[in-house]
């Protein structure tokens, strides 16, 4: 068996004829936090959307190269099956406005048939909300609607919703870009505690955040991987001048 | 005033009369209807809407009118036709917006839009001459024979021109309108929710289920708007409903609606003192119901749109 949960080789993606990613190679080891960093517009989000095949929702997107998850080519997998194992949380908090807090977290589990009884469902929702440190804040108002939550709480709710599917891989697209430092720290804490159970691939444009939580990092610039490796080494001794400038905040 | 530049002010002032005219017109129409209907209201009072008679006479004292049957008929026909049109419209909107490949979806939505431009008299003629006998032979006669114990199907004779026929044709005619309403609603759901559904592994039917849940208030609004539209439709109903003043639960029975009554009676109503005011009273009620439904429908749509942000 491969050491890697995700293996990407020679991936090129173009949207409407414009190359967004160029010959990307990337290997994500099991049970790690892999952070893909780079300035806005460098193709990070597109890369995530290839892994779970959400790229197919974008018209005129062309994908070349091989993307393997659990050693299987994602384009040979059933996309719905794939997305239940490789779940994504978007940049903008998007809890379903017509469902209350409990139902938002319970929805994917209900769809998947992960749980059998009402009790199990309640346990699952509680587990997911505890994992994102939201349980204590909402346990008395599980029937309230998401618009009553703050932006940061809403994003943690989305994270809980993703966890309730019990995924093997969690893709995070700048999950803390729009929220306050306190909620950011809470999310980062949750992610660290989740490492034993799943593999996390996170995209960010903030090198500080990568430095705080990453086991491995890749730096993407202009659609190509400039540098990648064990986080500590990349941060201590970046081999590439562009990486160095990004880490110093000069890009 | 609140304009800094002169051209802005001039533009506003020159637009003012036109915009006010359109707004004033509807109030003016309502007032005229009320004025023209006053004699009927004074003579019959509430009975105008609680009794079911249409007795004309050269002698005004013998005249007697009550609009209960067309009123009930209007509501009955509208409800039935909306019930038929709604599932068709939701399915069509979803299929064309979410399931069909892009090119095909465009063709389907153009087709439905064009269908909306078909003159209603064509639907009416088709319903009266073609659909009514077909419905009678393949639908009404068998249902009446085997399910006669259900009041909905229990009446005879079966002529084909009936509440059901009118409802079906109205439904066909309003599918394009309601489909475009539902499609608009779907398009207004921000992409982030659609992406969220796919990124948690929702399949197409689950996607359909959740989006329908999200659309629920909007669908209620679309129903009200469709209802108010169908309520005012005249030609189709006049040609297919059979024009009788009976009140019956049976959908195979001929009936009438306020617009169909007006269309049928208008010409002769001028001959009698109270007939014309009665028709005006009916149209005033129709106007008020339609305005209310449309207002409520639009309000729900606005509220819903805010909740989606």
From TrEMBL, chain A:
<keyword id="KW-0813">Transport</keyword>
<keyword id="KW-0547">Nucleotide-binding</keyword>
<dbReference type="GO" id="GO:0016020">
    <property type="term" value="C:membrane"/>
</dbReference>
<protein>
    <submittedName>
        <fullName>Phosphate ABC transporter ATP-binding protein</fullName>
    </submittedName>
</protein>
<dbReference type="GO" id="GO:0005524">
    <property type="term" value="F:ATP binding"/>
</dbReference>
<dbReference type="InterPro" id="IPR027417">
    <property type="entry name" value="P-loop_NTPase"/>
</dbReference>
<dbReference type="InterPro" id="IPR003593">
    <property type="entry name" value="AAA+_ATPase"/>
</dbReference>
<dbReference type="InterPro" id="IPR005670">
    <property type="entry name" value="PstB-like"/>
</dbReference>
<dbReference type="GO" id="GO:0005315">
    <property type="term" value="F:phosphate transmembrane transporter activity"/>
</dbReference>
<feature type="domain" description="ABC transporter">
    <location>
        <begin position="6"/>
        <end position="247"/>
    </location>
</feature>
<dbReference type="GO" id="GO:0035435">
    <property type="term" value="P:phosphate ion transmembrane transport"/>
</dbReference>
<dbReference type="GO" id="GO:0016887">
    <property type="term" value="F:ATP hydrolysis activity"/>
</dbReference>
<dbReference type="InterPro" id="IPR017871">
    <property type="entry name" value="ABC_transporter-like_CS"/>
</dbReference>
<keyword id="KW-0067">ATP-binding</keyword>
<dbReference type="InterPro" id="IPR003439">
    <property type="entry name" value="ABC_transporter-like_ATP-bd"/>
</dbReference>
<dbReference type="Pfam" id="PF00005">
    <property type="entry name" value="ABC_tran"/>
</dbReference>
From TrEMBL, chain B:
<keyword id="KW-0812">Transmembrane</keyword>
<feature type="transmembrane region" description="Helical">
    <location>
        <begin position="75"/>
        <end position="95"/>
    </location>
</feature>
<protein>
    <recommendedName>
        <fullName>Phosphate transport system permease protein</fullName>
    </recommendedName>
</protein>
<dbReference type="GO" id="GO:0005886">
    <property type="term" value="C:plasma membrane"/>
</dbReference>
<dbReference type="InterPro" id="IPR051124">
    <property type="entry name" value="Phosphate_Transport_Permease"/>
</dbReference>
<feature type="transmembrane region" description="Helical">
    <location>
        <begin position="274"/>
        <end position="298"/>
    </location>
</feature>
<feature type="transmembrane region" description="Helical">
    <location>
        <begin position="218"/>
        <end position="241"/>
    </location>
</feature>
<dbReference type="GO" id="GO:0005315">
    <property type="term" value="F:phosphate transmembrane transporter activity"/>
</dbReference>
<feature type="domain" description="ABC transmembrane type-1">
    <location>
        <begin position="71"/>
        <end position="297"/>
    </location>
</feature>
<keyword id="KW-0813">Transport</keyword>
<dbReference type="InterPro" id="IPR035906">
    <property type="entry name" value="MetI-like_sf"/>
</dbReference>
<dbReference type="Pfam" id="PF00528">
    <property type="entry name" value="BPD_transp_1"/>
</dbReference>
<keyword id="KW-1133">Transmembrane helix</keyword>
<dbReference type="InterPro" id="IPR011864">
    <property type="entry name" value="Phosphate_PstC"/>
</dbReference>
<feature type="transmembrane region" description="Helical">
    <location>
        <begin position="12"/>
        <end position="35"/>
    </location>
</feature>
<keyword id="KW-0592">Phosphate transport</keyword>
<dbReference type="GO" id="GO:0006817">
    <property type="term" value="P:phosphate ion transport"/>
</dbReference>
<keyword id="KW-0472">Membrane</keyword>
<dbReference type="InterPro" id="IPR000515">
    <property type="entry name" value="MetI-like"/>
</dbReference>
<feature type="transmembrane region" description="Helical">
    <location>
        <begin position="146"/>
        <end position="173"/>
    </location>
</feature>
<comment type="similarity">
    <text>Belongs to the binding-protein-dependent transport system permease family. CysTW subfamily.</text>
</comment>
<keyword id="KW-1003">Cell membrane</keyword>
């Amino acid at each position: 068996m491969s050491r890697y949960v995700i293996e990407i080789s020679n991936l090129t993606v173009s949207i409407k004829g414009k190359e967004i990613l160029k010959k990307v190679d990337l290997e994500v080891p099991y049970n790690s936090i892999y952070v893909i960093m780079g300035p806005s517009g460098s193709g990070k989000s597109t890369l995530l959307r290839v892994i779970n095949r959400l790229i197919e929702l974008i018209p005129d997107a062309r994908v070349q190269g091989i993307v393997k998850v659990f050693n299987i080519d994602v384009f040979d997998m059933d996309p719905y099956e794939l997305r239940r194992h490789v779940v994504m949380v978007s940049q903008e908090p998007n809890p379903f406005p017509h469902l209350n807090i409990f139902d938002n977290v319970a929805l994917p589990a209900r769809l998947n048939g992960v749980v059998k009884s009402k009790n199990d469902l309640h346990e699952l929702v509680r587990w997911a909300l505890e994992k994102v440190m939201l349980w204590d804040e909402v346990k008395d108002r599980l029937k309230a609607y998401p618009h009553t939550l703050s932006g940061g709480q809403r994003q943690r709710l989305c994270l809980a919703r993703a966890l309730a599917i019990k995924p093997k891989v969690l893709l995070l697209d700048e999950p803390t870009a729009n929220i306050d430092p306190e909620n950011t720290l809470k999310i980062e804490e949750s992610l660290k505690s989740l490492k034993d159970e799943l593999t996390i691939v996170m995209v960010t444009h903030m090198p500080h955040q990568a430095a705080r939580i990453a086991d491995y990092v890749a730096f993407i610039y202009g659609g190509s991987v400039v540098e990648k490796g064990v986080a500590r080494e990349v941060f201590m001794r970046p081999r590439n001048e562009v990486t160095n400038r990004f880490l110093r905040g000069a890009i | 005033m609140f304009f800094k530049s002169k051209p802005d002010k001039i533009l506003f002032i020159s637009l003012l009369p036109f915009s006010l005219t359109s707004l004033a017109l509807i109030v003016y129409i309502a007032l005229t209807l009320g004025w023209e209907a006053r004699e009927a209201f004074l003579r019959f009072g509430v009975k105008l809407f609680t009794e079911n008679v249409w007795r004309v006479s050269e002698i005004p004292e013998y005249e007697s009118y009550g609009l209960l049957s067309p009123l009930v008929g209007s509501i009955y026909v509208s409800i039935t036709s909306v019930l038929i049109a709604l599932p068709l419209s939701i399915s069509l909107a979803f299929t064309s917006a979410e399931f069909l490949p892009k090119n095909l979806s465009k063709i389907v939505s153009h087709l439905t839009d064009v269908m909306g431009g078909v003159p209603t008299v064509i639907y009416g003629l088709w319903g009266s001459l073609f659909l009514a006998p077909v419905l009678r032979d393949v639908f009404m006669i068998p249902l009446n024979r085997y399910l006669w114990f259900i009041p909905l199907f229990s009446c005879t004779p079966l002529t084909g021109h009936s509440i059901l026929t009118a409802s079906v044709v109205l439904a066909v005619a309003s599918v394009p309108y309601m489909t475009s309403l539902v499609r608009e609603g779907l398009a207004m759901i921000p992409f982030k929710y659609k992406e969220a559904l796919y990124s948690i592994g929702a399949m197409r039917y689950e996607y359909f289920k959740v989006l329908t849940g999200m659309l629920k208030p909007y669908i209620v609004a679309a129903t009200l708007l469709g209802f108010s539209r169908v309520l005012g439709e005249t030609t189709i109903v006049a040609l297919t409903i059979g024009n009788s003043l009976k009140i019956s639960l049976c959908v195979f029975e001929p009936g009438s609606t306020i617009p169909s009554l007006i269309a049928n009676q208008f010409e002769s109503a001028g001959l009698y003192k109270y007939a014309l005011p009665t028709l005006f009273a009916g149209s005033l009620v129709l106007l008020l119901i339609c305005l209310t439904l449309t207002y409520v429908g639009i309000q729900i749509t606005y509220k819903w749109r805010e909740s989606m942000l």
